[in-house]
Design a protein that fits this description.
The complex is a heterodimer of chains A (262) and B (469).
Chain A lengths: L3 E10 L2 E11 L4 E5 L6 H8 L6 E9 L2 E2 L5 H7 L1 E4 L11 H11 L7 H14 L17 H15 L3 E5 L7 H18 L2 E6 L12 E6 L2 E6 L2 H18 L3 H7 L5
Parallel strand pairs in A: 3-8, 3-9, 6-7, 7-8
Antiparallel strand pairs in A: 1-2, 1-4, 4-5, 9-10
Helix pairs in contact in A: 3-5, 5-6
Chain B lengths: L27 E3 L16 H14 L3 E5 L3 E4 L5 H6 L11 H6 L7 E6 L2 E7 L1 H5 L3 E3 L1 H7 L1 H7 L10 H9 L4 E5 L9 E7 L5 E10 L4 E10 L5 E12 L4 E9 L4 E12 L4 E8 L4 E10 L5 E10 L4 E10 L4 E11 L4 E10 L6 E11 L5 E10 L5 E10 L2 H8 L5 H17 L5 H17 L1 H10 L1
Parallel strand pairs in B: 1-2, 4-8, 7-9, 8-10, 9-11, 10-12, 11-13, 12-14, 13-15, 14-16, 15-17, 16-18, 17-19, 18-20, 19-21, 20-22
Antiparallel strand pairs in B: 2-3, 4-5, 6-7
Helix pairs in contact in B: 1-7, 5-6, 8-9, 9-10
The chains are: A alpha/beta (262), B alpha/beta (469).
Amino acid sequence: MADLEIRDLHVRIEEREILRGVDLDISRGEVHALMGPNGSGKSTLANTLLGHPSYEITEGSITFKGEDITAAEPHERAKAGLFLAFQYPVSIPGVSVANFLRMAINAKRDEPIQVKEFRNQLQHAIELLDVDKAFTSRHLNDGFSGGEKKRAEILQMAMLAPDVAILDETDSGLDIDALRTVAEGVQKLHEEQDLGALIITHYQRILHYIKPQFVHILMDGRIVLQGGVELVERLEREGYDQIRQEVGAGTAGAVAAGDSGV
Amino acid sequence: MSEQSDAGTATVASNGATPVQVKPGRHREATLYHALSGAGAGNGRTLEQLREAALKSYETSELPVWRRSGFWTTSLQSLDLDALEAQRRTSEPGTVPEIVARTLPDRARAGRLVQRDGSVVHVDLDPELRARGVILCSLQEAFRDHPELAGRWYSKRLTIDRHKLEAANAAFWTGGAFLHVPKGVVVEDPFEIVYAIDGPGVAQYARTLVVGGEHSEFKVHEYDLAEDFSGQALHAGAFELYLQDGARCRLAQVQDWGTGEVYDVSTRFVGVGRDAYCHWLPALLGGHLVRQHLELAVSEPGGDMAFRGLFFTEEHEHLDVFAVDLHETGPSGGDVHWRGAATGESRASFEGLIQIDPGAQQTHTYLQIHSMMLSPKARVDAIPSVLVSADDVSASHGGTVGELDEAAIFYMQSRGLDRPAAVRVIVEGFFEPLISELADEPLEELVREKIAGKLAAARDDIEAYATSR
């Protein structure tokens, strides 16, 4: 049994069906890539997995480590060991990165973390993400550049040590150096902490740094193709249109989902 | 002061404004949203003369109503002043109310004065500071022991007859606080001034006078506290602080009148002298009906000030703040920054006025007010206004009105914080830029705790609001 089991997931937002029966299994130590064109439902899946209140599950279930979390509150999912690295991280003025991390870590524990232990973990994480110490005393995401925001996401991931992390277009908007740092960070966490990851991406370039064992292609709210890393290469060669024709994904759904980036 | 020609129907108030004449039995309907501007009542009159004049004004005036262009009214109609007056009481010296120990941070201090209801019940002052000439005592004692000093500054800029409660304060005050930091004395730890109301039925006429001598440096922390009780009480306060040349003062105020029906109608004036500086931060954290006239005036060239403030209203509280950033001469600097949040069915109005008088050239000032609504029935009105009578100045204002950011809440929830914790982070983050400016760890912690407590109390309300959207 996989750690994260998604079964026949149907999701609506404001009367519009975005996911139309998604099945996916992810376990610790596995790296999955979820690829798909704009509007295919990638971010919807990411947000639904963490319980975003705007997304309504109409059918299907999400099970995590044997527990049905389909209706669980977002913070309960996080405490259980799920993590979402946001495509567009929100700024939280007035709270430093370090203080926020301490709160998040303590939310998962009965006893507050010892100062020394926290400091050691933080030190390890900032080295991993190649940020300097001053970074952690800045207000979370407040005035951060795109690259800093993505680093802050992975820094949080490193500190919170989830079992399974969903990385929603973590590669978008990054220059090549930032992309390499972030990707290597994820790779190391995968190796060190046996992290399971679902890397959601529109492009292929992040997958040059992190090699997924499983690749899934999402179109019009359904996973239409599954395979290994060779799928990435094929996608690079042929593009989404070719694959769409081949699998015959419903064009009506594509129009409905549009280009809204959901 | 000029005489009104039509003296048969109008007298002239001590600030030069013509009071509105009202028939007996009617509430005075007047817009009192203007600066005190100019001479106060002091001007050579003795304390006795001032009390007498104030009493006359008290007896002939009605409870005030503050009205602004149809959408905002602060009315004291529900205040039963006669009942409070009938049982006005003083407490025995020596008994410090329990709430003082419970609320004030345990920290080093320069001195502390506690007034309970109508009496000063405790004064302590660092003996070393006393030896250097610092005076901390009740205002009554100051008039007895330092009549020249107290008389010179008392009501120098405060008026005594703009409305009934101002007159009541000037006529009836007992106890009171007097602080004088002499020339050149620099004090690290704060002077604490506490006004506590013990229970219902109290009319507390609080009177504070603080004078900072040339190049003195000090901090004043005022606490306005009441136990939770049911029934009415009144705090009608008059506060004046004068900074002489080159003096620097950090003035902070923590006001939380608890859950009783406490009315607080106060006027506070801070005068900044030549090259002097004041950082002023009132934290208005609760009261049934609170009306504050807060005026920070740069009176001489080179004066500078930072006028900060925060408020948090809950349940059915009503808060009316009129804050004046007054520049009487230039060059001068000003910087006004307020933040407020409202829950429940509370209403808060903040009017910020930048007033630059003729001749206050080379004044540069900015006013910003940010507010946050945490419930559908709460309301915050922010009204900035600018009155400029000089041409070589810069004065501008800005502000935001916000609600809880659901995206930020989801973000924090996805990190393991539950919803109330996430809301708390947002609201604390909203206030943090001001709280950290207190630059005083124990006081910062107290304000943070109080805000957290109010958020916890409003938890269901905030939750209902979020799910309704």
